[in-house]
Amino acid sequence: MIRILLVDxxxxxxxxxxxxxxxxxxMAVVAETADAGDALMCLRTTPIDVVLLDINMKxxxxxDVLPSIKxxxxxxxxxxxxxxxxxxxxxxxxxxGASGYIAKDMDFHELITxxxxxxxxxxxxxxxxxxxxxxxxxxxxxxxxxxARLSSREFxxxxxxxxxxxxxxxxxxxxxxxxxxxxxxxxxxxxxxxGNNAELVQYALRHKLID
Length: 211
Fold this sequence. Notes:
The chain is of the alpha/beta class. 50% of the residues lie in helices and 13% in strands.
């Protein structure tokens, strides 16, 4: 039996996914949490074989907590779940220690295949970026694009800015002060050598981070 920890802050999504997973004879959700930090407590109290970890959560994001999960002993494999397409986050998730990446709009059977593969010690990434994943894994130079220099939190805030969210709204969503979000924005602009939000949106479009 594959014992799964489900980490996602959307109750309806968790409930629906649990029902689907329990229909599989070889897997079960044995623990769940809406908070990335609480996932660590679950790992210390419940035997877990695979973690399903959402990227986009209030407070500490999935990518922020992923290295901490991988530092646990024993550290179960982690599959990152995201509303974003694989081209946006998959390589960053791989660098953070993820064994798999599934976009939330993918077919459920692909998630099942992914869970079974990573539980057996393998890795699973979408076919459309598999070549990039293999090249990335073989390369000592992960700096394929300037955004690779951004931290996980900086990248997350960048994506929220380019989607049109105000700094105050970003702060509320991530439990950060507006001043802190503004500081992150300044770091992002400096690292990408950009001057304003319009240039940031153009950058995201040019690098296919958004449609």
